[in-house]
Amino acid sequence: MQSINRKTFLKCALALGLGLALGPSYAAGEKFVLISHAPDSDSWWNTIKNAVKQAGEDFNVTVDYRNPPNGDLADMARLVEQAAARNYDGVIVSIADFDVLKKPLALVGAKKIPFITINSGTVAQSEQLGAVMHVGQPEYDAGKGAGEKAKAAGIKSFVCVNHYATNPSSFERCRGFAEAIGVDFKAATLDVGEDPTTIESKLSGYLRNNPKTQAVLALGPTSAHASLKALDKMGLKGKMWFATFDLSDEISKGIKDGSVKFAIDQQPYLQGYIPVAVLAIMKQDKITDLAKVREKLMANPKFKARLAEYGLAPSYGARHIGSGPGYVTKDNIAKVEKYAGQFR
To answer: What is the pairing mode between strands 134-136 and 62-66?
Structure first.
């Protein structure tokens, strides 16, 4: 007979004594950590933080959020090493740079701590690192899909405004778009850094030097906001074809007024919620078969309610879970803007 610890016994006794009607039995105590590559200034990750908080409440677990304040990947690697040393029950990590993270994640694996990769990186890298699964958006496919929409609109040239070139997967977005319209992605990619003033200045300079550029692709709010400001000052806002990855209040406003054709939504909420839920189910229900884990997750009433409320739709593979891409346009912006920056 499996033993039961005193803490769990007291909880069960209390629940029975009060006559409470219990739902799925998620025992408290598990502690996970999500480690991202994002600097403190990147507001896009607020949605993932909100998702992590809700998943922790839904599955009765504690989840710490850790990140390198300035986005330094060496600092991120140290955070992963610390996670291994602290013996978390589970780790969630973005593959910001495979080569930088493979050694610290090997330490996590050596401790037999299950970990799930999210956001950046590929499923092949995730598997090579030994992760349980990857939850994210196929970056090349997302960029290519956006490029195909641009090609249909007659676009033959563009500039990809890359504000996080330190993350190799960012180039996959630019490459997908470039190959869809038939241009060299390296020549069309602009490394601008994360400072808004610098982004604005570099894009303005590029467009002055390349006046035949027909379109701008931003890789997220950090580059989108500054790019829109640059276009506005140059008298090109609303005239030049413009699209971006991810959402924010300003991007939503641009979609409605026509200055932004669409936003490529990778549904970041799912990247925060699903890994926490999966690790909790694996730990608390002692399930290792991923098909059964997904089945239990999909049947969870709280998870189903979250999906319905926020209008989210994950895609399930044999092992990995896709969180995108989705395209937010004028046609569906009303359905998502209510939660933009919070749960979308």
So the answer is: unpaired
Mode of pairing for the β-strands spanning 31-35 and 90-94 = parallel
The backbone torsions φ and ψ at residue 33, rounded to the nearest 5 degrees and listed phi first, read: -140, 140
DSSP 63-110: EEEE--TT--HHHHHHHHHHHHHTT-SEEEEE-S-HHHHHHHHHHHHH
- Cβ atoms of 12 and 20 closer than 8 Å: no
C-alpha atoms less than 13 angstroms from C-alpha of 153 in its C-beta half-sphere: 17
Residue 44: predicted pLDDT? 87
Rounded to an integer, what distance in angstroms lies between the CA atom of residue 98 and that of residue 247? Answer: 26
Q: Which residues pair with 240 in a beta bridge?
A: none
Place of tokens 């999909």: 298
Phi, psi of 238 (to 5 degrees): 90, -15
Please give the distance of CA 230 from its chain centroid, rounded to a whole number.
26
Percentages (nearest 5) of helix, strand, coil residues in the chain? 50, 15, 35
pLDDT at position 337? 80
Dihedrals phi, psi of 316, to nearest 5 degrees: -105, 125
Q: Are 263 and 141 in contact (CB under 8 A)?
A: no
pLDDT digits (tens, 9 = 90+) for 89-135: 999 999 999 999 999 999 999 999 999 999 988 899 999 999 999 99
Are 117 and 304 in contact, with CB atoms under 8 Å apart?
A: no
Q: What are phi and psi of 234, to 5 degrees?
A: -90, 0
Give me the phi and psi of 233, to 5 degrees please: -65, -25
Could you give the percent of the chain with pLDDT greater than 90? 80
Q: CB atoms < 10 A from the CB of 50, how many?
A: 18
Query: Residue 45 class from Cβ within 10 Å (0-12 exposed, 13-18 middle, 19+ buried)?
Result: buried
